[in-house]
UniProtKB/TrEMBL annotation, chain A:
Keyword set, alphabetical order: Membrane, Transmembrane, Transmembrane helix
Similarity field: Belongs to the CDC50/LEM3 family.
Protein name: ALA-interacting subunit
Topology in the lipid bilayer: Multi-pass membrane protein
Cross-referenced InterPro entries: CDC50/LEM3_fam (IPR005045)
Region of interest: Disordered: 1-33
Location of the protein in the cell: Membrane
UniProt keyword annotation of Oxidoreductase present: no
One cellular component (GO) term of this entry: endoplasmic reticulum
Compositional bias annotation for Low complexity: 1-10
Source species taxonomy: Eukaryota, Viridiplantae, Streptophyta, Embryophyta, Tracheophyta
Regions that span the bilayer: 49-71, 310-332
Pfam families attached to this UniProt entry: CDC50
From TrEMBL, chain B:
Alphabetized Gene3D superfamilies for the sequence: HAD superfamily/HAD-like (3.40.50.1000)
Cited PANTHER family: PHOSPHOLIPID-TRANSPORTING ATPASE (PTHR24092:SF157), PROBABLE PHOSPHOLIPID-TRANSPORTING ATPASE (PTHR24092)
Domain P-type ATPase C-terminal residues, every copy: 217-467
Residues that span the membrane, as ranges: 248-269, 281-301, 334-358, 370-393, 399-418, 439-461
Family classification: Belongs to the cation transport ATPase (P-type) (TC 3.A.3) family. Type IV subfamily.
Keyword annotations from UniProtKB, A to Z: ATP-binding, Magnesium, Membrane, Metal-binding, Nucleotide-binding, Translocase, Transmembrane, Transmembrane helix
Cell compartment(s), UniProt: Membrane
UniProt-annotated binding residues for Mg(2+): D191, D195
Name by which UniProt lists this protein: Phospholipid-transporting ATPase
NCBIfam families named among the record's database cross-references: ATPase-Plipid (TIGR01652), ATPase_P-type (TIGR01494)
Length: 393, 547
């Protein structure tokens, strides 16, 4: 059937059988591509493939899941929520007023280290219910202005938070910079009062330092818009060295997020108590946000996150169960392939299979036809065929 | 012509919604179109063609301008009519015709139609079918609006319909009426200028080029040089086209739902403010570059069974007629698959890249990395999904599928290399942040497999519990059963042939039946004549010849 080649000439005789060799043939050039005969592999989903696919997934996933879980378990993480503790009792019902007043906001909390933490220990602050991914907020920045001094007045996307009360432009403009986080933390060991230095260098992405934030841009009129939204910036330091700002301006994806504050470059022993003197300046009380301080080590997998390991193990177990289930089912209810083999040797329902076969010449003559009749279910040495010739049935 | 048919099927299928998409139910052809091959070797092929079309479940009507006797002879010669068929003749008698009274003529026609219909209803024997032969003058009356309904009801229930002395206008009218009355897809094939009306009226018009000029060809949707190519056009290319278009449409729905739903889910977490999870350019290239080429390769090259199997098993064509692959349950199923995939991708990524650091250097994932990671998961899932539904893999499909995935990484690298003014969120995304994070690759692997697992389980269960015809056929071919157990292969072919009333195989069936009846009569007479306890007789009757 794949040999159908149209070889008709241009509107000439309709029968189109092979005539003179030098006919004007319109046959298109044969190529496997145009005749859709490209070599192809046609995968079939046999029981073997189904069971082996599930088994392979299970065999690959379960070890990976265990490795991920181990990697996550070796991370030591200490989380301390402090925004309610750090309100003095006098202001317990007026938190917003407290945070906006100029009362001393120093607060002392302590953190207990459960297991030995190897350096470097990362210090994060975590905010909850803070939508850094709000569209209006995300758009309110001017990358051009951050990058170079000559674009200082390119503040169209920052409007209306782009001008200070005295009418001059704010650098860096926009809501993201305006809401800069400004809680401060300092750590000391309780037992010997030794203070732990927090390394605040190297916390931002290198591409930010080199490419996004300019070396010649310095903060100007920051928080000068009448309403204070967060912390201050040192006007003498160029933006490419303001790592807190760079970390803050990388807007988070989810409403609960952490940002890197600094690194502690010493080991901390198990059961050690760390005193934290923090400056509770940032106002999350207006919107019931939570503030948490996090000390964490990292492993090859990053911070502490059991979900990945558990997910791998779950999917691996499910696939193992499915593999076993399908194996059982395939034995109980065999597929077509094995079913047919059983039938060939056993009870084959008797049926006549008629395959008409014409002797080319007079197919239209109803009186002369030859029939092949073959029997099913009878496996003799060769095949058993009977040829009957009828005349005028 | 193979090439023309293939391209036209493909293009027509892409740009129109109806014709090839729904398989043909009726073919209306004119006498001269099959007369192409009066030379014996070709007429054999024409017979084969019509037989296959009948086995594929297509009803065939014959419209001709010749007189009734000629038309009936043609019907016999191409097996539309058989000796054992009851023929209903609807024609005007000479007196009524000469009187030319419309009312009388209508009455007579109506009477004939009704009596024929009654005969048909009373006779429950499936084996002796009915044929309808209508004269041109009678047709004119019968197609009038009040008689039309009954006439069509009678005609549609007959195994074959032959109309003689039909004018071109009546051909077009019949086509339109059959189309409207049955609601099924019709194809008209003809080769002369008088067939143009019919060709244009039908859902699909096929013109045969050749003896009578090119008018039919110019008015048609497809043109063939010979009638016998119609078989291949419908049964091979029509079937493939149906499968291809269905798969393409369903997969495109799935792909876009899987992609768009992640964006919607993210809005829940942005306080519905409308911030987008992905960079703008990621979203532009999604449908244009990164997921379109596999779909195109699916739509152009997919074959569920090879062409010779299509021709051996004409009843596979009925899948298109019954619209199995594009039924509502399938559409809803694929939409659900998209929803599940989007949910798995989104939730997994949200929990994996939660607040904690994602790299050993302590960095936390922000919106740029989160978006890029989720986007990678979607690209992998969507492209591997199409790899699961393609059944015919050429090097082109492999190139497009795996190439699309690779193209995403190349795009991310190239986009990230642009200065941050242009690349916004994508600046150095792979080289600096996520490329070196093991969590990224590990998470992509998990999410892809987990998102595809429901569909894979579903098709494994479906193959087990209710395999479709082409699965069984392919499995038999895969195990080489068509070669080693040829009889079973033929038997399955036989089973797939719909019992038809027209075509030479039906004629053969009728012959076998009469042969069997004759043999059983002879057996009874032998029984009556001679002793029935001889061993010879017992062995004779217990042999399979007398099942």
């Amino acid at each position: 059937m794949s040999g159908h080649m149209a070889s008709s000439s241009n509107g000439g005789s309709g029968s189109g059988d092979s005539g003179a060799p030098r006919r004007n043939s319109k046959r298109p050039k044969y190529s496997k591509f145009t005749q859709q005969e490209l070599p192809a592999c046609k995968p079939i989903l046999t029981p073997k493939w189904v069971v082996s696919a599930f088994l392979i997934i299970a065999i690959v996933f379960i070890p990976i899941g265990i490795a991920c879980l181990l990697g996550s378990r070796e991370v030591v993480e200490v989380v301390e929520r402090y925004e309610n503790e750090c309100i003095p009792p006098a202001y317990a019902n007026n938190k917003v007023q407290y945070i906006q007043s100029s009362v001393d906001k120093t607060c002392n909390i302590s953190m207990t280290i459960p297991k030995r933490m190897k350096k470097p220990i990362y210090v994060y602050y975590q905010l909850d219910n803070f939508y850094q991914n709000h569209r209006r907020y995300v758009k309110s920045r001017s990358d051009k202005q951050l990058k170079s001094l000559k674009n200082e007045n390119d503040t169209s996307s920052c409007k209306p938070e782009h001008l200070a009360t005295n009418g001059s432009t704010i650098v860096p403009c926009g809501l993201i910079a305006w809401s800069l986080f400004n809680d401060t933390y300092s750590f000391s060991r309780r037992q010997n009062n030794q203070s732990l230095t927090v390394n605040k260098k190297g916390i931002a992405w290198k591409s930010d330092k080199q490419k996004r934030f300019g070396k010649d841009v310095r903060p100007k009129n920051f928080q000068g818009g009448g309403l204070r939204g967060g912390g201050d910036l040192d006007a003498t330091i160029p933006l490419s060295e303001q790592e807190d700002l760079m970390v803050w301006m990388r807007t988070a994806a989810l409403p609960t997020f952490r940002k890197l504050y600094g690194k502690i470059e010493v080991d901390l022993e198990a059961n050690e108590v760390i005193n934290v003197t923090l400056g509770n300046h940032y106002n999350t009380y207006s919107f019931n946000g939570k503030k948490k301080l996090v000390l964490s080590t990292t492993s090859w997998i990053g911070g502490r996150n059991d979900f990945l390991g558990i997910a791998y193990l779950t999917v691996g177990m499910i696939c193992l169960a499915l593999a076993i289930g399908f194996t059982v089912v395939y034995f109980v209810k065999p597929s077509y392939h094995s079913w047919s083999e059983a039938l060939i040797c056993g009870a084959w329902p008797r049926d006549l299979v008629i395959q008409p076969f014409y002797h080319g010449t007079e197919a239209l003559d109803r009186t002369k036809n030859a029939f092949w009749i073959s029997f099913d279910g009878i496996h003799l040495a060769g095949t058993s065929h009977l040829i009957c010739n009828f005349n005028a049935c | 012509m193979e090439l023309v048919a293939w391209l036209s099927c493909g293009l027509l299928g892409l740009f129109s919604s109806n014709p090839i998409f729904k398989a043909i139910s009726h073919i209306i052809l004119t006498k001269t179109s099959y007369r192409k091959g009066l030379a014996f070797s070709l007429s054999e092929r024409v017979l084969e063609c019509m037989d296959k079309l009948a086995q594929a479940g297509i009803k065939i009507w014959l419209l001709t301008g010749d007189k009734k006797e000629t038309a009936i002879n043609i019907g016999f010669s191409c097996s539309l009519l058989r000796q054992d068929m009851k023929q209903f003749h609807v024609c005007l008698s000479k007196e009524t015709e000469s009187k030319n009274q419309l009312k009388d003529m209508k009455e007579e026609i109506l009477h004939q139609i009704e009596s024929s219909y009654q005969v048909m209803c009373q006779d429950n024997n499936k084996d002796s079918p009915f044929a309808l032969v209508v004269d041109g003058r009678a047709l004119e009356i019968a197609l009038k609006s009040d008689v039309r309904g009954q006439f069509l009801q009678l005609a549609v229930n007959c195994a074959s319909v032959i109309c003689c002395r039909v004018s071109p206008k009546q051909k077009a009218l019949i086509t339109r009426l059959v189309k409207k009355h049955t609601g099924k897809t019709t194809l008209a094939i003809g080769d002369g200028a008088n067939d143009v009306g019919m060709i244009q009226e039908a859902d699909i018009g096929v013109g045969i080029s050749g003896m009578e000029g090119m008018q039919a060809v110019m008015a048609s949707d497809f043109s063939l040089p010979q009638f016998r190519f119609l078989e291949r056009l419908l049964i091979v290319h029509g079937h493939w086209c149906y499968k291809r278009i269905s798969k393409m449409v369903l997969y495109s729905v799935y792909k876009n739902i899987a992609f768009g739903l992640t964006l919607f889910y993210y809005e829940i977490l942005t306080n519905f403010s409308g911030d987008s999870l992905y960079d703008d350019w990621y979203m532009v290239v999604f449908n244009v570059f990164l997921t379109s080429m596999p779909v195109i390769s699916l739509g152009v090259f997919e074959q569920d069974v090879s062409s010779d199997v299509c021709l051996q098993f004409p009843s596979l064509y009925r899948q298109g007629q019954r619209n199995i692959i594009f039924s509502w349950s399938r559409v809803v199923g694929w939409i659900l698959n998209g929803i599940v995939a989007a949910s798995v991708i989104f939730l997994a990524n949200v929990y994996i890249f939660s607040a904690a650091a994602f790299r050993q250097e302590g960095h936390v994932a922000d919106i740029t990395q989160f978006g890029a990671i989720m986007y990678t998961c979607i690209i992998w899932t969507v492209n591997c999904q199409i790899a699961l539904i393609i059944t015919h893999f050429t090097w082109i499909q492999h190139l497009f599928i795996w190439g699309s995935i690779l193209l995403w990484y190349i795009f991310a690298l190239a986009y990230g290399a642009l200065p941050p003014d242009y690349s916004q969120r994508g600046f150095k995304i792979l080289t600096e942040s996520i490329g070196a994070a093991p969590l990224y690759w590990v998470a992509t692997f998990l999410v892809t497999i987990a998102a595809l697992l429901p569909h894979f389980t579903h098709i494994a269960v479906q193959r087990l519990l209710s395999p479709m015809d082409e699965h069984i056929i392919r499995e038999m071919q895969h195990c080489k059963k068509d070669v080693t157990e040829n009889q079973m292969w033929l038997r399955e072919q036989r089973n797939s042939q719909r019992s038809t009333q027209v075509g030479f195989s039906a004629r053969v069936d009728a012959r076998i039946r009469s042969f069997k009846e004759g043999l059983s009569l002879k057996r009874i007479s032998i029984y009556n004549k001679s002793a029935t306890n001889t061993p010879f007789y017992i062995s004779w009757t217990s042999s399979p010849l007398f099942s």
